[in-house]
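Can anyone check this?
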Amino acid sequence: MFTFSNAVEAGGMRTMSLPPHGSALHAPAALGGYDLVWALAPETLRAQLAGLQKAGKLPSEVLVGNLEEAGMMVGGPDADRVRLAAPHLTLDAHTPRSASLELLFTSGNISFYDAPGQRNNVRKQSVAGWKLAFNVKLQLEPVALTGAMRDASPDCARALMRFDETRYRLHALALDFDHSDLLHADPARTQLGTGDAALAGNFVNFIGAWLKGLAEAGTPFVLGYAAVRAMPGDDALSKLQPGSVSVAAAGTLNLLHMLGRKASSDGRGAAGGPGLAAVRPGYAPGCAARAVLSREVFFKRFLKPLLIDPIQQRLTQLPDYRNLRVAPDGGLNREESFNEKSGVSATMDNGARAVFVPNASGWGYRDHVLLHWREGNRLSHVRESEQDLQFSVTVSSQPDGMGVPRLTIDLYSSLMRYEWDRASQKMALFNRKVNLGKGWARSTMHWAMRLQFVADDHGAIRVVATPKRSPAATDSGVVGMYMVSDALGHLLNMNKLSNEWEGNAASLSAVQQEVVAGFGVAATELFSQMAGQMVLPAGPQPGCRGVQLNEDGNIELDLGW
């Protein structure tokens, strides 16, 4: 008996080792327990605040206080007018919901009386070049779609119009001045050009009161909007839309989401708290934001129903080799035969079919059958027929033709067929059987298809399929006085075998046309969905720039222009 098993390499072909039954599913990488995270680059935040100020949504001047009532005023007419540069936000990567808001004053004066009770002389103090920073809080707050669109920029309004209020809920990521410390400046980031401690303290209090007044007057410091499903969907893509929002944004300005019916208090991430997601630092040039989908969700709730299950159904349509080669006289030797199928406990009689089994990098499938029987009488044969059908799906990050790392799915299928025959003839003269030799033949066929996720010029992710069909690798031999010299042609019908391999329900062409084509459309919709459900308040909306399997094993989508 020759068993191909997992150790043989023929014609450059590779084989696959499956994990034992009951092995662990794909281990989820660290993402704070959350399913989906959106993270904005610091440069994007600054650009959003600058864009909002330029559009008049955020103030560019300060006027607060009253000389007669408070004895001090920040700003005023003409040379006293206090002007602001675009606000600057620095995130605290280790503290949830915390950031430092920095205000840079470019011109203008503080007006105040020379001394308490002496109102004859008004003094001036220039604030040009002063920088004042407050530690502020961030919060995700539900907002009405109509209210958000009322004050939105044209680009933001167009993006928000895609969401129907009957199907989606909108949340704004905004500075929360009500729960921020606006009485004390952040000393590490504040630079006030005065040695007068009383004046500096009053200036901090006046600007803090001014910020609170802006919030009360409805001037929002909105950094982004997150659209989430109002009701769970039924299809695979709808189930992958965010359906609930964490109780707060994290200090890294992550918008943390969990899919399905889960809530942040279900024990995922920081139970009941704001949570932090482990999104790697650093953004590529031009990258405005990053959307990260957990490995567990991508594997189980996208790849499994939309790629693995359709291929599984096609493999199950193939005839079970256990039932194809049974000796006419029923002389199957069960002790020498076996029926090995991945994911199930198969016997020679229970009809179980192989299924895909998850492993560390994807899924593996194996249907391995060996039949041993005796046939004939005077001229008898001891026969063995072995078939090993394997299929693997491997997810990794691989470079494309230009050397750019891409999220990559490799499909690989192989079929090994082995036939062995030992012939003998009963001689009446000697009343015994005479060995007439042995013959064996083996053929191995395989194909591969690489699927890479590539961003097009319109900011959409497309699946680029590269199929590769390899010629069959064959070998054969005879021992002794076997009846023929060409065992390959005698034991294997290569034309029939090749036609069955290339024309079955799980062939390269069938998988590419019937499975991969639909999977590619779904992948484009998935990543467009991930990108489109975060809306920036100012300027054009970013599109997909690339997607890859990151160092943590999660699916990372870069967004930009």
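Reply from J.R.: I decoded it. The radius of gyration is 35 Å.
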